[in-house]
Write a structure and sequence with these properties.
Blueprint: E1 4-5, H1 20-29, E2 34-41, H2 54-67, E3 73-81, H3 87-95, E4 101-105, H4 126-143, E5 149-150, H5 173-185, E6 189-193, H6 195-199, H7 208-216, E7 222-225, H8 238-248, E8 256-257, E9 260-261
Parallel strand pairs: 1-2, 2-3, 3-4, 4-5, 5-6, 6-7
Antiparallel strand pairs: 8-9
Helix pairs in contact: 4-5
Bound molecules: zinc ion (2 copies).
Length: 262
């Protein structure tokens, strides 16, 4: 299996100061075959503009692609916040540039993000909040076609005013199955986001039961990404994830050029 990191943020994202060159050097040091930068764009992220200066982003990364072309494959991607309140804005933003790969992620629902427990979670039980998150994810994957893989499928497990933030996936398995089936039908994939190994001290997210379910339902499009916002995390835990992919039965990870699978 090819060693890739298909989820990385740099100073072009509002929440990172990382220099893309440092990411590349770390990726080469770790022996990765291919990387993809996926800086953030969200429409109306509450309290913080998650804007992306796509022209400057492409200009900088094209130069780095050229400089390192003999050493590592570098793709230019995007982590697009999916939000059914901004369908036209999102589609036209993605189509304006030649991204190689687009992660579709749910960071905001009804203009509430998840960091502040007083917002999205207010007045809801944990089960109600989690159900709403997965229902919204289903609606997004049904609505949007502009992405290649769904980002961090159970992202909600990071947040909420609970001692135990763990998601009981079985309670929402019907919705999760619909999400996975919709992705498969649209020839779209999932990523395993390895930030869970460090932040949640468990495994990547989603967990490998969900990856197994995606495989059993016929899904074959998978990537792995570290969600690095600093260069020291580039490539972290990628090999563990690849071993799990192999155990499940996948032959290789997917890579993309201009939003088409290589
Ligand atoms: Zn994200
Ligand atoms: Zn990210």
């Amino acid at each position: 299996m090819r060693k890739i990191d298909y989820h990385m943020h740099t100073c072009f994202s509002a929440d990172s100061n990382a220099n893309p060159r440092e990411h590349i050097l770390m990726a080469i040091e770790k022996g990765l075959d291919e990387i993809c930068f996926t800086d953030h764009k969200d429409f109306q992220y509450p309290g913080c503009p998650f804007d992306l200066d796509a022209d400057a982003y492409f200009y900088t990364l094209r130069q780095l692609q050229k400089e390192f072309e003999d050493q590592i494959k570098i793709k230019i991607g995007l982590e697009m916040g999916l939000d059914v309140e901004f369908i036209e804005d999102i589609n036209s933003f993605v189509n304006r540039h030649d991204y190689d790969y687009v992660i579709g992620s749910i960071h905001v629902i009804h203009q509430s993000e998840f960091y502040d427990p007083a917002l999205f979670f207010k007045g809801k039980s944990k089960a109600e909040a989690h159900r709403e998150f997965f229902m919204n994810t289903l609606k997004c994957v049904q609505t949007f076609d502009c992405f290649n893989c769904l980002g961090h499928l159970d992202y909600i497990c990071r947040y909420g005013p609970y001692d135990d933030k763990h998601v009981e996936h079985a309670l929402y398995q019907d919705i999760i199955d619909d999400i996975l089936k919709t992705l498969i039908q649209k020839d779209k994939g999932i990523e395993v986001n390895t930030s869970g190994y460090r932040d949640l001290k468990t495994c990547g997210f989603p967990n490998f039961d969900i990856v197994q379910r995606y495989y059993d339902l016929g899904g074959r499009v998978i990537t792995v990404g570290t969600d690095s916002h600093t260069s020291d995390r580039v490539g972290e835990h990628v090999e563990e994830v690849l071993k799990e992919y192999q155990r499940i039965g996948f032959e290789d990870v997917s890579t993309f050029t201009k939003r088409v699978r290589d």
